[in-house]
Amino acid sequence: MANTPYPESYYAASANAVPPRPALQDDVDTDVCVIGAGYTGLSSALFLLENGFKVTVLEAARVGFGASGRNGGQIVNSYSRDIDVIERTVGPKQAQLLGQMAFEGGRIIRERVARYNIQCDLKDGGVFAAMTARQMGHLESQKRLWERFGHTQLELMDQRRIREVVACDQYVGGMLDMSGGHIHPLNLALGEAAAVESLGGTIYEQSPAVRIERGATPVVHTPQGKVRARFIIVAGNAYLGNLVPELAAKSMPCGTQVITTEPLGEELAKTLLPQDYCVEDCNYLLDYYRLSGDKRLIFGGGVVYGARDPANIEAIIRPKMLKAFPQLKDVKIDYAWTGNFLLTLSRLPQVGRLGDNIYYSQGCSGHGVTYTHLAGKVLAEALRGQAERFDAFADLPHYPFPGGQMLRTPFAALGAWYYGLRDKLGV
Predict the structure, then answer these.
(1) Got the DSSP string for 319-343?
(2) CA dihedral 409, 414, 419, 425 (to 10 degrees)
(3) Which phi and psi angles does 303 have, rounded to 5°?
């Protein structure tokens, strides 16, 4: 079977050294088979192992190969649709539960990093940057909303104050969330995988799940082996393909693009982001950026619907970077890559169970770093018979994309064009 390497990226080039893991070559019996060694799968595996389950993880390529190892590396609280939208959709009782969980993912990441001594350049502090008075108004109401759910590490920033933390004159103000922050995402995944193995879990790489035999004791087939389990957790997200047909119609893989500069040096880096916070703007099609551990600027943005790889990523993203930081016009770009995330029509995660023993979580819609860590805990709770928090997610309504799989990409792109136009016009 072909050996799938990591796609070229700054993260792959600077990953902590880990020997490749073997492919599954025989038949295995386990309590839980987890499909996918990204954050959702690894977080689930860790919580289950800590609670005495025997866990086997199957990964089609390498640990963190998908969005978990290619994302912007930002710890951003809440969901892609905020708690007020959830409240209007499902009512106050379910929203209360989801609101209480909205800030848990970041805490889980920090707890994992501390407990398992994961080297992933963890830094505290994330900035939401407003480009218009309307966006600033939204941040003011967001602060009130989050504080209602007990989240208090927030500071509103006027134009003068935001200039102290970001050397960019595009912003009229912003909000600082000190429980936000940033990490080297692939190194976080690799550290979590090592933690899984330290607790007796097994991870097979280059072992795609090609078929699930459903039943009282489900079996997951790979090209050269199979895993018989009491429970299955499906955590393939945007890289799941058509393994579980019921999940494909209600979600769509999308690509986001990231570039990384050459090392800027301590002095220049400090003038751009003096406190080393990460930043995202408040546009619908947002830009996001931060410094790496070795003082490069990592800058991402743009969405390609249907997850095609654009021909020239640097041509798409570099102009956005220079608009924010014209002082980088002579700086070389060392890396440019794309990675897929999974979008749902509601932009809320899809969580559920198929039959009695197949559980899934997917569709983070761009808020995956924190949500996936929470999802692992919630899935593990459900397998232990504590389903209240799982049910709060599972009861969220989800709809297929209009026109089915053939038309979902043009419809979504049309929606993005509309919101992009609104961003440009400042409405």
Answers:
(1) HHHHHH-GGGTTPPEEEEEEEEEEE
(2) 150
(3) -135, 130
pLDDT for the residue 172: 98
What are the start-end ranges of the H helices in 332-403?
A: 368-383, 388-394
In a domain, 234, yes or no: yes
SS3 219: strand
Residue 67 is given by DSSP the state G
Sign of CA dihedral 35, 338, 162, 365: negative
Query: d(Cα 333, Cα 108) in Å, to the nearest integer?
Result: 33
Number of CB atoms found within 10 A of residue 295's CB? 19
Q: Under DSSP, is residue 229 helix (H, G, I), strand (E, B) or coil? A: strand
Query: Residue 249 in 3-state DSSP?
Result: coil
- Binned average pLDDT, 10 residues per bin, the chain of 427 residues: 84 95 97 97 98 98 95 89 82 87 95 98 98 96 93 96 97 97 98 98 98 97 98 89 82 85 98 98 91 98 63 90 97 92 76 95 81 97 96 84 51 48 49
- As for how many domains the chain has, the answer is 1
- Domain at 284, CATH number: 3.50.50.60
Q: Is residue 91, in this structure, part of any structural domain at all? A: yes
pLDDT of residue 310: 62
Q: What is the pLDDT of residue 41?
A: 98
Instruction: Output the pLDDT for position 365.
Output: 66
Q: Report the pLDDT value the prediction gives residue 421, as an integer from 0 to 100.
A: 46
353 Cα distance to chain centroid = 21
CA distance 239 to 249: 14
Q: Strand runs (DSSP E) across 13-91, as ranges?
A: 27-35, 55-58, 74-75
Instruction: Look up the pTM and report it.
Output: 0.93
Q: What range does the domain containing 43 cover?
A: 10-410
Q: What is the pLDDT of residue 418?
A: 45
Q: For 246-262, b where at least 16 C-beta lie within 10 A, e where not — what string?
A: ebeebbbbbbbbbbbbe
Q: Dump strand ranges (E) for 38-122.
A: 55-58, 74-75
Q: Could you tell me which residues come within 8 angstroms of residue 80 by beta carbon, excluding any fewer than 6 positions away?
A: 347, 348, 364, 365, 366, 367
Asked, for residue 221, whether it belongs to a domain, the answer is yes
DSSP string, 49-62: HHTT--EEEE-SSS
Structural domain contains residue 1: no
Residue 247 in contact with residue 240, Cβ under 8 Å?
Answer: yes
Tell me the C-alpha distance between 282 and 300, whole Å: 14
